[in-house]
Specification:
This protein has 282 residues and is α/β, with parallel strands linked by helices. Helix content is 17%, strand content 23%. Bound molecules: GDP-perosamine.
């Protein structure tokens, strides 16, 4: 994927996006400001303002999106990579969070998100698409192997910052990596560290001091106890739990509803209560 330095054009003229993507120009120089630079500046100013005025803005409210490394949630326009069921949820998270969505990149031009009445325009396939200046990408495919494959094709520097649904609660002392999406109702507590492109799915609980590796998926309702760790590329299944301090390795699968009471080695698949190994992972 390459960077297109031309000013970004709205994908669907006449839609809500078309209005949002007017790139303002400086009155004296006529130079275009990139939406990202405006967004970052606005993030900084509003973040400071709302830190003195808690609760005024659900997106900038302290305890939601401020991060331990001093960043606030990105509001740069995003391009979704993948246009299936998971992408539909990511689209709604972006809209709720005030993050503009430029369009979808999918190998199938007729993917569900491009067809949906409330969807977004199809922009191209991963191998041929050129990302517009001022936008970043968000991986919106659920399958971890497909996500890893696509990430291998993309320039890591063009990824969007993290996007957080306004109903999620993220400690100001947590860190969210690039491309992380935090879904509705999730809680990420103090000193938790979420790696790049991890999915923190609906109503997940990530307790204090947890470490979650890049491109891991914490499926809906899963719970990580304080100080637990999850390796890169691992799937924690729906409503599974990892007990405090327990480590799950890289590229593992933890089955739905499992309770992990002991460390799990890289590549293992574990199921049940307490969780037991049944083979190799993702
Ligand atoms: O390599 C790819 C690629 N592989 C699949 N490049 C690009 N650009 N797109 C790719 N896709 C596209 O991702 C497919 O063409 C398809 O449109 C989409 C996958 O959609 P699907 O609805 O099959 O799955 P999903 O990943 O959106 O959702 C799964 O994972 C979620 C976490 C489902 O299992 C959901 O139920 C689950 N909640």
């Amino acid at each position: 994927m390459l960077r297109d330095r031309r000013p970004m054009q709205p994908p669907n003229a006449g839609t809500e996006q078309a209005v949002r993507f007017q790139i303002p120009t400086h009155p004296a120089s006529g130079c275009a400001y990139s939406p990202a630079s405006i967004g970052r500046r606005a993030d900084l100013i509003l973040g400071r303002l709302f830190s003195f005025w808690p609760g005024l803005d659900p997106i900038f409210a302290p305890g939601r999106t401020a991060m331990a490394d001093g960043r606030t949630m990105s509001r740069m326009p995003v391009i979704l990579i993948g246009g299936g069921g998971h992408a539909g949820v990511v689209l709604e998270v972006c809209r709720a969070a005030g993050v503009p969505v430029v369009g979808v990149v999918d190998d199938d031009p007729d993917c569900p998100l491009a067809r949906a009445p409330d969807g977004v325009g199809w922009l191209g396939r991963t191998d041929s698409f050129v990302i517009p200046d001022g936008a970043g990408y968000l991986i919106a495919i659920g399958d971890l192997a497909a996500r890893a494959r696509v990430l291998g094709l993309l320039d890591a520097g063009l990824a969007s910052g993290p996007v957080v649904h306004p109903s999620a609660v993220v400690s100001p002392a947590a860190r969210l990596g690039d491309g992380v999406v935090v879904m509705p109702g999730a809680v990420v507590n103090r000193a938790a560290d979420i790696g790049d492109h991890a999915i923190v799915n609906t109503r997940t609980v990530v307790e204090h001091d947890c470490m979650v590796g890049a491109n891991a998926h914490l499926a809906p309702g899963s719970v990580l106890g304080g100080g637990a760790s999850v390796g890169a590329g691992t799937l924690i299944g729906i409503q599974a739990a990892v007990l405090p301090g327990v480590g799950v390795g890289e590229r593992c699968v933890v089955g739905a509803g499992a309770v992990v009471t002991r460390n799990v080695p890289d590549g293992a698949t574990v199921v049940g209560v307490p969780a037991r190994s049944v083979g190799v992972g993702v």
